[in-house]
Design a protein that fits this description.
The protein has 174 residues and is an alpha+beta fold. The chain is built from four helices and eleven strands. The strands form two sheets. A seven-stranded mixed β-sheet has the order 4-3-7-6-5-10-11, with helices on one face. It is globular.
């Protein structure tokens, strides 16, 4: 599997990411994540509409919390036209607790704890930490599962470009 040394930093320290650097125009790779209902969700099982995959290291950290809540609010008016997923390596139980406690209702959480396939195939699995984490990233995918926007946030502790991600999603939402 491809490894990208110094692909991102965390608090200034360089980190290696496992997997490819995806870009607009690439076919979205398949994955197998676990839903809050403990069901395996694959790309092939997602609805044939515009999708936003918001990737975070852990919902129990401030930036990840803010990122998830901001997209949940910003995308509320589009919920019939899009599918919005927050993906992390948090256990599904912790993701469900977070959504309940924070009143997150528009996002579907997916845990990559099953086999790290999202992290490996989307190039966001961080290597070399004491525990596996995903790097912060955003992927917008059209109804035909083609990536139309990809952002790998260079500093894991920083916010993504919310406006560009929402613009990209609205452009394909129909």
């Amino acid at each position: 599997m491809e490894k990208r040394a110094n692909a991102v930093t965390f608090k200034g320290n360089p980190l290696t990411l496992v997997g490819p650097a995806l870009k607009a125009g690439d076919k979205a790779p398949e994955f197998a994540c676990v839903s809050s209902g403990l069901e395996i969700v694959k790309l092939a099982n997602t609805p044939a509409k515009a999708k936003l995959f918001s990737v975070v290291p852990s919902l129990d950290t401030p930036v990840c919390n803010q990122q998830t809540k901001k997209f949940d609010t910003d995308l509320a008016g589009l919920k019939d036209k899009i599918a919005f997923y927050t993906i992390s390596l948090d256990l599904p139980f912790a993701q469900k607790r977070f959504c309940t406690a924070e009143s997150v209702t528009n996002a579907q959480t997916l845990s990559d704890v099953h086999d790290h396939s999202f992290g490996k195939h989307y190039g966001v699995l961080i290597e070399g930490l004491p525990l596996p984490l995903l790097s912060r990233a955003i992927f917008v995918v059209d109804k035909d599962n083609k990536i139309t926007y990809a952002e790998y946030v260079p500093e894991v502790a920083s916010h993504p470009n919310y406006e560009k991600a929402v613009e990209a999603l609205k452009a394909i939402a129909g």
